[in-house]
Amino acid sequence: MNVVRLISSTDTRALNRLLTRDEGMDPTLERRVAAIVADVRRSGDRALVAYARKFDKLEGAIEIAREDIEAGARLAPVAVRRAIRVAARNIARVAKAQVPRGGRVVVATGVTVEQRVQALASVGCYVPGGRYPLPSSLLMTAIPARVAGVAEIVACCPRPEPAVLAAALEAGVTRLFRMGGAHAIAALAYGTASVPRVDKIVGPGNAYVATAKALVARDCAIDFYAGPSEIVIVSTQGDPDWIAADLLAQAEHDIDARAILLTSSKRLAT
Amino acid sequence: MNVVRLISSTDTRALNRLLTRDEGMDPTLERRVAAIVADVRRSGDRALVAYARKFDKLEGAIEIAREDIEAGARLAPVAVRRAIRVAARNIARVAKAQVPRGGRVVVATGVTVEQRVQALASVGCYVPGGRYPLPSSLLMTAIPARVAGVAEIVACCPRPEPAVLAAALEAGVTRLFRMGGAHAIAALAYGTASVPRVDKIVGPGNAYVATAKALVARDCAIDFYAGPSEIVIVSTQGDPDWIAADLLAQAEHDIDARAILLTSSKRLAT
Questions:
Q1: What residues in B contact A140, CB-CB < 8 Å?
Q2: Between B24, B97, B217, which is nearest A225 by CB?
Q3: Residue B113 falls within a domain, yes or no?
Q4: How many structural domains are present in chain A?
Q5: End-to-end distance of chain A based on CA atoms, in angstroms?
Q6: Which domain holds residue A38?
Q7: What is the pTM of this model?
Q8: C-alpha angle with apex B174: B168 to B177, nearest 5 degrees?
Q9: Residue A8 domain-assigned (yes or no)
Q10: Chain A contact present for B225, CB below 8 A
Q11: ipTM of this complex > 0.90?
């Protein structure tokens, strides 16, 4: 559980502890992740399934059949499914406005430069399965891909809850796999007999996932290398509930996340 | 020197040799590059200047003063300087049309999502100094940055020829450094006392540069990890001179580059 603390601006020791971050990677973690990635790249499904059984408590098939996605999604409360539908529609609306258009420029007589924007053939959406289900991660990665025209939208999640299954249906995911961590990233980057190799991997994850994405980035595009979430809100006023919601939305990502409110108002801080 | 060869479609052994690429990285090269990057990150200018002296035959200061850029540029033939000016104007025209615009979307009553597009504060343009001067690399990286509104445009080149200096003036480069290779990438990614740390590193380079870019990518954005250039032209007709020019424009990048024409016309191939 994350800890909520009031720190006075004069308590520089506590402030420094809060703001200090390790530079660079943990070499032990990196070696471990590199071994997993190499193993899945070399041995495919055999290694992938072994890691998924060990780390994700996989039982049964690694791919979730369409009818199982549909049956699982029906277990999500009606209000949750409705919220997912509304969120999906809103995300699609924003994504549509963001699709780059390309165009033509006449550079000189007889010379025209045209930029054509084409969707990738496939993407892999990583959905963490950690402490809290994150259907929002699925929606925010898969829907822009669908709107852009990506044909194959592969998603993976180590332990997909009903809300995540409902989000997969709503987002138009074409294939869904029960896997997470570094082995899932390696499977998406290099492909196995069961998992198709994708053009780009997107979505948030823990230190294993982030490190694996950095390691495969030369062979498969990634969105970016993301450290733990950080948010700083500077305010002396505003609705404390809204501010708390914004802080918690980042804090819930990871036990290493940092959510900070800077304020001169003791009332607001409390 | 690159070798031009006619290969018949029935000579599968020669075809396979042409098309086969090593998978992944050379581990010896990667270790060597990682050591250079770590050294420059740790020791700054001291390591950077030592490597630049050793690999780039640096004499004197690592930064080239504005008046030296201007004096050097005047040594480029008038026709070359004129061609650079025309190219710069054309590249700026295309770059202007490509600047993303952002916008607002009303998602629901009272909820508007706005996307604002802001230029990076600084970029580093890598210009190879290898067998042939590549003023085009400088123009194609620095001009889009200038058009986008990037304030600090740092360029580096191990041995900048007069044409590269003329391109730097034309493109609006703000600082120019006499350095190349993995140590230059490390200096741009982490900064030293002499070289400012940049937000993003762009531009082509040899295996050392590509590997260094991949290694710093978690700490500093890069354009992408580029292997040796490849071009395949499929044609049975067209002007042989134009086709040859397109092939040579890629082949000149590197001795590992591959430039291939597939044709059923023996006349064209010859």
A1: none
A2: B217
A3: no
A4: 2
A5: 19
A6: 27-91+118-222
A7: 0.84
A8: 70
A9: no
A10: yes
A11: no
